[in-house]
Amino acid sequence: MSTPHDTPDDSPDGGPDRTAQTADPTTVRAAGCVLWRRSPFGGELELCLVHRPKYDDWSHPKGKLKRGEDWLACALREVAEETGYAARPGPYLHAVHYVAQDRPKEVRYWAAEAGAGRFVPNDEVDRLLWLPPAAARERLTQPRDGALVDALLTALHLT
């Protein structure tokens, strides 16, 4: 069962040790962002979701940490790689823990406002959508990712 939650070392910057050093080498470490913007057509809040053809799923942009990489640096790199947009990081949201391919996985997420950029489809991400929060929650493939929508709204003081 997967539940999003904060772990004791989850401070706003991702914890006291911001790299992926851990006593459990089997845990896959990843980071991502709930990327948001104000719609160019009316100013309403929109969230960015990406479609990964390998898994045929809709999710928030995220990816695995590189050796020695900072959690937040990974999250921002993955946003740029998967969406083509620069991201201005905001508050740390929380970590999500689950099992993927028989290995424990930890993904830490930040709120991030979209900056300049343009999406170009690639092998890893073939589609991108900007959706209002309720529609984004419905489109997300994994129910656990919906809690991140709520965490973003709370962080932006919209709930």
Automatic annotation (TrEMBL):
Its EC number is 3.6.-.-. Keywords: Hydrolase. InterPro entries: NUDIX_hydrolase-like_dom_sf (IPR015797), NUDIX_hydrolase_CS (IPR020084), NUDIX_hydrolase_dom (IPR000086), Nudix_hydrolase_domain (IPR051325). The keyword Hydrolase applies. Residues 1-26 are annotated as: Disordered. One of its GO terms (molecular function) is hydrolase activity. This is NUDIX hydrolase. It comes from Streptomyces galilaeus.
